[in-house]
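User: I'm new to structure prediction. If I give you an amino acid sequence, what do you actually give back? Let's try with this one:
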Amino acid sequence: MTTRLILLGTAGGPTPKVSRSAPAQAVVVDGHTYLVDAGNGVARQMALAGLPHGSLDTVLLTHHHSDHNADIGTVLLLSWAAELDRPVAVYGPPPLSAVMAAFFAQSRVDIDTRVDDEGRRALDDLVTVAEVAQPGVVHEDDRVRITAALVDHPPFGVALGYRIDTDDRSIVISGDTTPCPALIELARGADILVHEVLYEPALDWITAGSNGTRLREHLVNSHTMATDVGDVAARAGVGTLVLSHLVPSDGGVSDEQWLAAASRGFDGTIIVGRDLMEL
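Assistant: Good question. You get back a string of structure tokens that encode the predicted 3D arrangement of the chain. For your 279 residues, that looks like this:
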């Protein structure tokens, strides 16, 4: 068994970026793709990464901010239009069931037309949806064991991080979170921790032109500063720390600056994530 991690999108925040795509990670095990988050454009990122859309097996949503869930339905619809014809399990926080039902209602004409005109199985029949509101194992098959933790990302009452364990690797995706004990425990001894990061010195120009006070409060209270993420990785005892969901995303902070900030308190391997990077 060979486990691949592909960073499909490494930007943070809802605004479309020039240099990075919206948050998404693919863990690929024996030809099955386990997708964590589904930011805008994720289906195309799968194509660019060379991942067959028919390989989509499981989708895991961390929370309901639009940079993470904008294409939660679209990636299924487009994969199905391409070649997906096997069951897919979708997990995420409430109100995931209502979100997916609304998407299927929105897409009814397209789905029904393709069923009638192209002889496909109805997409609704292939997709199972399960809401996750408590920590613990959420999915297990003969390739992976997936465990969720409740992380700290206000104002959401339920935001999730995920750990994917296979025969040869353990990979943790933080989702959006402040440094929190639940994420550290989830990542304990993992081979790879993919963690969101915010470069605090850039806050002034990130918040310029917006409701700066409110946005600044959200960023500071809901995310992890680059200078704190190394401590999280060290306390969890992970082998490799991968920086992703970078804020800011479109330039302004060099890889060297990200690495210098994240290396405080952590002497393991640190990688600044890039779209389509495989680890």
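You can read the tokens as a compact description of the fold. Here is one thing that stands out. The longest helix spans residues 96-106.
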